[in-house]
Task: inverse folding
């Protein structure tokens, strides 16, 4: 059907694609620790040792868990299986609120206590006007 | 049928079409911007910063789409030695890069009020930055080398390398924990974006697609003029 050269070129490109995909896959696989942006409380619980390095944890801010004492803000990050207490002093983003996603950057003191140096609010994939949200909540 | 692919026919289309495309682009863009900036509601959570999304998401879609088309053209062009396909891919690249940069910049502007940071090295954002680097690499190769056959080979390889990144961009938010939220629009399951916000989003996507088409036609027209000036009648 096609000439020998054409077949060779198809084969050549397929080979390149396969080799590169495989290398990228292996590369990302081995770097998984660094590819993920934050660890969930469950992943923190399974850590074998607590590193002194800066890490990020993320999850939902537990309902009714935010307490503000003078300049310090305390809250609980949960993934609905495990929880971590977080302490932070500084400005939080506008979207930071209870039952919303959060990513905290800082140092793990032990498996239940995290000292945050930076707070990022995580936005979810839901977009809707306020009226719709209100109507949903009434239900 | 075949006569439509004659260079002169193509040239007469590419030299006349831009003004109509430009007109259509302006009309659709006006509708899109009116919807996005005035008519559409604010978001319950992020209020007015949701409007950045109407530029950010279409720009990201278009840049991914253009790269995929460029890859397809380069691969088929390389296998069957179709010179024309490379020129089409070359003419598509600049608008792809522009929209890629727009997606990164608007994402950054949105990130500051929403996340609380301009930039994060999360998987989605980083892979999108890598795509921009591939676009730049692709465009530079065309400028570096005078030898067309060499350029065709190198650009094919670059697009193949880059295309591996495209599914990574798409699924990064599902595979790993990222700061970037997962997709709101799903073809197979229910979308988590309200219909009043979906409409301006799609209109803006159409407007950006038309803009890409406009730039493409102008770029491609230039390529055809270059060929004519070389005294070559065939592509």
Result:
């Amino acid at each position: 059907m096609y000439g020998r050269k054409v077949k060779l070129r198809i084969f050549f490109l397929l080979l390149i694609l396969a080799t590169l995909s495989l290398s990228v896959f292996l590369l990302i696989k081995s770097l998984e620790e660094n590819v993920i942006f934050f660890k969930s409380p469950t992943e923190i619980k399974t850590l074998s040792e607590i590193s002194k390095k800066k890490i990020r944890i993320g999850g939902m801010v537990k309902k009714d868990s935010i307490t503000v004492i003078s300049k310090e803000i305390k809250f609980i990050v949960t993934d609905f299986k495990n929880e971590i207490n977080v302490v932070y002093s500084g400005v939080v983003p506008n979207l930071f609120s209870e039952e919303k996603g959060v990513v905290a950057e800082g140092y793990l003191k032990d498996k239940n206590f995290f000292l945050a140096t930076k707070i990022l609010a995580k936005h979810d994939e839901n977009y809707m006007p306020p009226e719709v949200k209100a109507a949903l909540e009434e239900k | 049928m075949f006569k439509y692919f004659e260079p002169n026919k193509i040239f007469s289309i590419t030299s006349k079409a831009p003004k109509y495309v430009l007109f259509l682009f302006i009309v659709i863009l006006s509708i899109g911007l009116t919807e996005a900036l005035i008519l559409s509601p604010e978001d319950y959570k992020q209020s007015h910063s949701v409007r950045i999304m109407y530029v950010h998401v279409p720009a990201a879609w278009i840049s991914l789409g253009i790269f995929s088309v460029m890859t397809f053209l380069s691969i088929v062009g390389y296998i069957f030695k179709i010179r024309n396909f490379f020129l089409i891919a070359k003419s598509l690249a600049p608008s792809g890069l522009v929209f890629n940069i727009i997606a990164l910049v608007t994402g950054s502007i949105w990130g500051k009020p929403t996340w609380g940071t301009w930039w994060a090295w999360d998987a989605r954002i980083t892979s999108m930055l890598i795509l921009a680097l591939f676009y730049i690499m692709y465009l530079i190769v065309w400028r570096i080398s005078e030898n067309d056959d060499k350029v065709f080979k190198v650009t094919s390889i670059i697009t193949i390398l880059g295309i591996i990144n495209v599914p990574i961009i798409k699924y990064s938010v599902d595979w790993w924990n990222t700061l970037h939220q997962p997709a709101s629009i799903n073809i197979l399951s229910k979308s988590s974006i309200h219909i009043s916000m979906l409409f301006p989003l799609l209109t803006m996507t159409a407007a950006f697609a038309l803009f890409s088409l406009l730039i493409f036609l102008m770029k491609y027209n230039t390529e055809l003029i270059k060929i004519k000036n070389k005294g070559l009648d065939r592509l």
